[in-house]
């Protein structure tokens, strides 16, 4: 029960964090179209994570997607920083994305076992 409560709190916090990216999205719409496109995905994901907080076990795949996409984004940013394509200050974002991914994986709802149904009633 504590794990599910912690997951709900993490989902709300991450959902809010991603949703507030709507402000920079509006700012970068004309200046950095590629960044605005990426932010639009995060804003959308944030809204769906907020909705998933109501019933995390029913949204297992969305939570897994949020976790693994955070890992992939962190890996891409890490490689970009290593190649000096982005400023070193972006490593804070890498750390944040890794923390989000780890929290969602560790707290994520476990697989529900499916009981086979019998055609014959006992």
Descriptive overview:
The chain is mainly α and 122 residues long. The mean pLDDT is 90. It has helices at 2-19, 22-31, 33-52, 60-82, 91-107. Helix 1 (2-19) packs antiparallel against helix 5 (91-107), helix 2 packs antiparallel against helix 3 and helix 4 (60-82) packs antiparallel against helix 5. It has 5 helices and no strands.
Write the layout of secondary structure elements.
Elements: H1 2-19, H2 22-31, H3 33-52, H4 60-82, H5 91-107
Features:
globular; 0% strand; 122 residues; mainly alpha
In short:
The chain is 72% helix and 0% strand. It has 122 residues and is mostly helical. The mean pLDDT is 90.
Report the end-to-end length measured between terminal Cα atoms: 33 Å
Rg value: 18 Å
SS-based class: mainly alpha
The percent range for helix content is: over 70%
Shape: globular
Low-confidence stretches: none
Mean pLDDT: 90
Q: How many distinct beta strands?
A: 0
The succession of helices and strands, N to C, reads HHHHH
